[in-house]
Amino acid sequence: MKIATYNVNGVNGRLPVLLQWLETARPDVVCLQELKAQQTNFPAAAIRDAGYDAIWLGQKSWNGVAILARGATIHETRRGLPGDPDLSQSRYIEAAVNGVLVGCLYLPNGNPAPGPRFDYKLRWFEAFTAHAATLMSSKAPVVLAGDYNVMPTDLDVYKPERWRDDALFRPEVRSAFADLLDQGWTDALRSLHPDQRIYTFWDYFRNGFSRDAGLRIDHLLLSPPLRKRLRAAEVDRHVRAWPKTSDHAPVWIELDD
Questions:
Q1: Which residues does the UniProt record annotate as the domain Endonuclease/exonuclease/phosphatase (predicted)?
Q2: Which of 29, 81, 222, 223 could form a disulfide with 142 if both were Cys (CB 3.0 to 4.6 A apart)?
Q3: Domain 2-255 belongs to what topology?
Q4: Residue 165 DSSP class
């Protein structure tokens, strides 16, 4: 079973890229973030023609999350995060697919920090951590996949010294991510590549991709039943080089059936 997360940075504007990647990579389940599309403007027909069922939570111009599944039924379990401090922002959707509970999230960026946006990020993170604890206590096979807007360690950012005060790297955020892992979640990509510099995002500005000035902010966290089934975890870095592509690359894992 192949599960992926991909911040598409506009699902309609990047639709050709998304469809090309779906055709070549053939993931079984995909979590999308930053749809930037109203609920009625999601390209469901095109995605269905590509062989995928979908559920989504849209929002005009900003945010938005979706779960796609190939050849399987999506059993939606939740729309929106319990305790979300701002329910007007579409940042979380959850469903069961082929015996796995999939939570798709788009954690707030939080910049500029400090400030109201950073405070909102921390409140959202706190609510998410509380919900993750509930999922962990269920002992179900769960993957929490998405754009966390967090670089957990110095190994996850190209020049750590330049990011110390950024909302994606401040101590409060890194500590929140560590507290989340302490519940028993496994950072899939890092667990299989413990010492490797791996990035999932490269800014459009200043030739970030060509300079490999990247960040690792897209993560898949696994509950203990899935950790035992983890066989591979990689980044489809080549997709970031495609024309009119997102500033993120898809990240995926493979699980034993």
A1: 4-248
A2: 223
A3: Deoxyribonuclease I; Chain A (3.60.10)
A4: T
